Amino acid sequence: MKRRILFLLLCLFSLAVEAQTKQIKGTVLDPDGFPLVGASVAVSGTKNGTSTDLNGNFEMKIPADATTINVSYVAYGTMSFSVAGKSYVKIQMQSNKIEMQEVVVVAYGTQKKATLTGAVGMVKGADLNKRSVVSLSTALQGTIAGVTVQQGSGEPGADGSSIRIRGLGSYKAGLSPLVLVDGIEMDINQVDMNAVESVSVLKDAASASIYGSRASNGVVLITTKRGKEGKLKVSFDMYSTIQTPTNMPKVLRAADFLQAELNSLENAGIVIPADQRAQREQMIFDQRTYKPDNWNRYDTDWKNATIKNTALLTNYSFALSGGNKDFKYSGTISALDQGGLIETNNFKRLNIRVNTDAFIRPWLKFSNEISYRVSDQLTPGISSPKAIINKSLYMLPTLSAVTELDGYWGYGKNGDNPVANAAASGSRTVKRPELLFNATLTATPIKDLEILGQYSYRKTESRGTYITTPYFTSLRGVYLGAFPGTDGVSETWAQTVRNFIRGQVSYAKDFGLSKTKILVGTQVEDNLNTDFSASKNLFELDRYYLDNGDAKTATASGGASNWAMASFYGRFNYDYDDKYLFEATGRYDGSSRFTEGNVWGFFPSVSAGWVVSKEKFMESIENYVSFFKLRASYGLLGNQEIGNYPYATSIDPGYSYWIDKQVATGVAQTTLANPDVTWEKSQQVNFGLDASFFNRKLAVTFDYYIKDVYDMLIDYPLPYYVGLNPGNTNGGDMQNKGWETNLTYKGKIGEFNFGITGTLSNNENEVTKLYGFFPNRALTVGYPQNGIWGYKTDGYYVDANDVANSPRLSNSAKPGYVKYVKMDPSGANPTIIGESDKVYLGDPFPHFEYGLNLTANYSNFDLTVFFQGVGERKVMMSGIGVRPFFNGSNLFTHQLDSWTPENQDAEYPILVPEANSADNFVTSDKWVQDGAYLRLKNVVLGYSMPKSFLDKTKLDGARFYLSGQNLFTISKFFSGYDPEVNYGGSLGGEFYPIMQTFTFGANFKF
């Protein structure tokens, strides 16, 4: 009986306890959405807890009145989450603290962020990939202070951006940084962003000097994803994008153009006979009154007929990874298809990459990367997409129709019809395959010793097939022949093969408070370039193959070149108590591009750091100052990017001579050789600090640097009568100095996580010395490289008296013309503006570059808003961009705001024909515009599906997002043009517009 009573009491007690607890289940994910294994989960204020399994799941009983649980993980700290009224929670950890223990990829290894002594910026691949842009270079814009990224075009396959690190590092010997993908040099714009783990940028000489002569313009280190121990993880990403131009100038239709043309003749004082005036006025009346009939009247909108309003872009990516302690693997495959704004313009790319790590023995690891990329670029048979777009802007609306009534293509301008160029002139297809094999064997025979051997093989090809098919034209029923005059086929092939071998030994020893690491290595690389091309004309029956055509028109050419480099390098690190830091590096490079005596160059660096926050006198403020480090560095770098044979005499075997009244073919020296040319060198001093405050929620980085370039490689100045192209010489010095800062704040309010990151930098460039006379103002001592030089202006000439009593550029000046200022009164004629009156007008390189990235996460939603801009930049525009009627072109609507006696504050001078307007459009401050801008570069809104949905599927995660790129721009730049683009071309102002994009995408994890 007593046993029964005891049993009954125990059951009642169990029921009471059960009534006071509840079951809670959940899944813990890392910031990227992958399951987090081994995370600790506990009820707030107790030790009652558990840990997550291999799938990131947990299950436990908690008190019924418990409202909060704490989740802890080493990399992300401890975070609290509400469980009130919930039986299941999905938890995504956030890095709300700026962790100084974060590992940063540096040259030939990694280092803790806290112990870095150089200027290194890093961004995670996941953050870049959120932007859903085609090229990795464009995704980097605004993310790292001191890195200038400018996108110059929106053309498919050519919409990558230029990258400059800390200004212009040279005049002739290359400006782009060294880009290494897993240690192998590659094209940054062809990298699959889905495969990128992180991007590090080595900005100062101390960080980059171990790469020696290859690193004079900085180094970009791209690390791809590798497999991790655990079950197979699979992800699938896809997005579709609608592309539309950010900005395009508006062109005049026929009536307005004819009226502007008549006004220009009157303004120029050109006498128009009465019958011709009446005819012109009747044409204007008819254009305004009647619709075009494409016979008597043309009013062709070439712009809308040629340029599409939108173009489609799609991208698909598939990735898998996994492994165990002995073997790990990661693989990605992606396919891109990008349409263009005109017909016959498309770019496709396929990327495949497989990374593996295998432990052959516990002390021996074999790592392997195999990647294959192939791209196909399609453009029209004649004229580039950029040229066709610009033809459609300046083509006169009165010339012809796009297609005439008889079915032939409209004659356009002497047969040149931009719509026919795009749709009917043939095609240019370029296929570019690339194969990379990279193998590394790493041995650790004893503790702290690592021996590494690496071999890589990279082959890139370019195979082009250019087919020109003439189209037939007419005008008002009269057949006018084919354009261009003949057909043609040209095939090209080029190949670069690069072999790379590296051997390296490193030894790291931990003595307790003191830590040292010594690294020494050697590497050899060889590059072989070969090319071939052939062409024919006059094909029959549209059989466009090289084995057809007229043999008399056949041409062929080919060539080969190679260069090699051998290097020895070393690095020594010393760290005392993570407080006092020292690093020294050196590299000894030998290049085949120089002659004996100049082949070898030595490039050393030293750097030191002091973690002030670890000193005892900082303990009283450690709640406010979490981390504070001072660092300084000095280093020397070299540059040898000047072509393969600068020391050798160049002989042209196809040089033409006039002998005995006939043209004969012979040979001739065409370029001056310089056997004494040697390394361009740069030395850089850097002072910086890294700090974090308020329990590491606010982080600040600041750097100040001075970079002096000497023995600068330039073209040797020669008088024109020498008859040779200039060779290379070491002819000048230049300096870059500037500062850069980065601020990051991460916070959390309840379940709302947010982050703010801002970057700001400025660089000042100055040519400090020229070793001899240099006739080009692009290099002027005391001013920036490629500075703009021209005349100062003072509005417009008001009337004839103003013209007569003021200096002028020529005697053709008249009221309404641009009025110039005489800056050099010592000239021979005080009334004529001359070359000596030109002054410095500004620097086209961006200054005060900034970026602001705002992130937020709440529940299953995530939001990213990114602003980017330039505070100061000068841009000189010429050609059709500013000059009405230039080269027989149409006008833009903003050019109608021209001077008249009643409109003396007009944007443009008096409207006159092109032949009369030359004085108004020389280089002057009138046409140097403010290129500063603020742009909403990117917005991403995402939603991750809840666990309740995922449980009903086989998915581990699903996220959908909307994204916009280049959404709006605030600028005072020329109407219809983009302030980010560097305009140029034979007509001036030519461009392929940057794209504004709207994207829908999805990500699935299995």
TrEMBL record:
It is found in: Cell outer membrane. PROSITE patterns: TONB_DEPENDENT_REC_3. Gene3D superfamilies: Carboxypeptidase-like, regulatory domain (2.60.40.1120), TonB-dependent receptor, beta-barrel domain (2.40.170.20), TonB-dependent receptor, plug domain (2.170.130.10). Belongs to the TonB-dependent receptor family. Residues 1-19 form the signal peptide. GO terms for cellular component: cell outer membrane. This is TonB-dependent receptor. It is a multi-pass membrane protein. The keyword Nucleus does not apply. Its main location: membrane. Keywords: Cell outer membrane, Membrane, Receptor, Signal, Transmembrane, Transmembrane beta strand, Transport. Residues 113-219 form the TonB-dependent receptor plug domain.
